[in-house]
Amino acid sequence: MTAFIIKHFIVDFPMQQKYQYLNKGTFGHPGGILHAAFHYLGTMAVLSAFSNITNIFVAIGLAIFDGVIHYFVDWAKVNINKFYGWTATTSEMFWHLVGLDQLIHYITYIGIIWYVI
Q: Which pLDDT band holds residue 108 (cuts at 50, 70, 90)?
């Protein structure tokens, strides 16, 4: 789980460039897809390093699962905030939604780990 949390931090914060975070709310935009692809690659790296998966298709499937979940959760978060006009400085609901976003991502990792073990 620690490796997934570190992967998540690296991809969601230091690696996430303006092009990604400004466009995650536009469905199908390459910026959001790129961000999800980085999560896919990070999950592949974690699974390669720390799991005993011998079937590459299982690893690919789990990584795709993570990338797709990440894409839709981020897209929904951006659009819910936009719909209600919630921003970091105007509503505590913005931060509640950020927290829910992070919780869903961590639950995704728990599910992946559960499947692997």
A: very high
Q: How far is CA 112 from the centre of its chain?
A: 13
Query: How far apart are alpha carbons 23 and 36 in whole angstroms?
Result: 12
Longest distance between any two alpha carbons in the chain, whole Å: 49
State pTM to two decimals. Answer: 0.94
Exposed/middle/buried for residue 35 (C-beta within 10 Å: 0-12, 13-18, 19+): buried
CB atoms within 10 A of CB 66: 26
Please report, for the chain, the start and end positions of each structural domain, with discontinuous segments joined by +.
2-116
Q: Are 46 and 4 in contact (CB under 8 A)?
A: yes
3-state secondary structure of 108: helix
Q: What is the 3-state secondary structure (H, E, C) of 31-57?
A: HHHHHHHHHHHHHHHHHHHHCCCCCHH
Q: What is the mean pLDDT of residues 80-96?
A: 98
